[in-house]
Amino acid sequence: MKIAIDGPSGAGKSFLAKALAAHYGIIHVDTGALYRAIGLYAQRQGIALEEVEKICGLLDGINVSLAFSSEGQRVLLNGEDVSDLIRTPEISMYASAVSAFPPVRSFLLETQRSIAREHSVIMDGRDIGTVILPDAQVKIFLVADNRARAERRCIELKEKGIDTSVEEVLADMNKRDENDRTRTTAPAVAAEDAVLLDNSGLNREETLQAAIQIIEGIIKE
Ligand code: DC
Q1: Ligand 1: which residue has its CA nearest to atom 14?
Q2: Whole-angstrom distance, CA of residue 75 vs CA of residue 44
Q3: Residue-wise pLDDT tens digits, 169-212
Q4: For ligand 1, atom 4: residue with the closest CA
């Protein structure tokens, strides 16, 4: 079984994908972590956001992989577990910036596809339904209004000890979504056969139930 969950940042993809993976007893692959690891590498090399294209010449020195356990996914950058270090607002911007370059996307393509060849997966990202797993049985494009997304992301960051305001998160999110949606390669748009799920007015449990209904409806057909 392959299920693709795409959508803009803060729409709740990660929570939904995790909950669905637990429900169906399969693994959750958070593909954003791969782009975040490359973004972290760029930042550590002292590359400024404005000249982040330089990362394309450094890909030979990078090894990014994912490891799965009952606790979930960990991301390894040249053997170092960077799963927690990649969750800052700065690295979010780096991830979005590096993800616009075709060499970076090609570099990560096989890592993602090979996981789905070996396991049943719920994979979340921006181009899962369009590029990575065009043959996924179910594709959900998850959206929520801007304010709801910014408020949720702000709470998540506060839980991680990062103090920020909804306005700041909203501004960063809009910039990142604009990058992700308008890039030429693999833009963050819904696949033609994706089901749009707007969870602005839904809590987590209601979102999960709505997604299960979509999945069961498609699988029964
Ligand atoms: O899902 P996330 O916020 O952790 O993703 C970080 C960035 O990585 C996001 O701004 C765009 C990029 N990304 C992508 O281009 N394609 C994916 N499949 C996943 C993430």
Answers
A1: 126
A2: 16
A3: 999 999 999 999 999 999 999 999 999 999 998 999 999 999 99
A4: 32
Q: Per-residue pLDDT tens for 58-94?
A: 999 999 999 998 889 999 999 999 999 999 999 999 9
pTM: 0.94
* Rounded CA separation 181/189 (Å): 6
Rounded Cα gap, residues 187 and 128, in angstroms: 11
Domains of the chain: 2-216 (3.40.50.300)
- The protein residue whose alpha carbon is closest to atom 9 in ligand 1 is 96
**Per-residue pLDDT, 34:** 98
Integer Cα distance of 206 and 208 in angstroms: 5
Cα(181) to centroid(ligand 1), Å: 11
Ligand 1 binding site (Cβ under 6 Å of any ligand atom)? 9, 31-32, 35-36, 95-96, 99, 125-128, 176, 180
> Using CA positions, which residue lies closest to atom 11 of ligand 1?
96
- Side-chain-facing half-sphere of 93: CA atoms under 13 Å: 16
Pocket test for ligand 1, best of 13, 49, 94, 99 (most atoms within 8 A of CB): 99
pLDDT digits (tens, 9 = 90+) for 160-170: 898 899 999 99
> pLDDT tens, 90-123?
999 999 999 999 999 999 999 999 999 999 999 9
Between CA 73 and CA 158 the distance in angstroms is: 22
The alpha carbon of 124 and the centre of ligand 1 are apart by a number of angstroms equal to: 9
